[in-house]
Amino acid sequence: MRSAVFWSVTLIAAAVLVPFAITNRATVSLRLWPLPFLLEAPVYLLVLLTLLTGSCIGAAYVWIAGHWSRRDLRRRRRRVEALERELAATQARLTDQTDRLELQSPSDHEKHRDPARLTLS
Question: Collapsing DSSP states into helix, strand and coil, what is residue 29?
Answer without folding.
Answer: strand
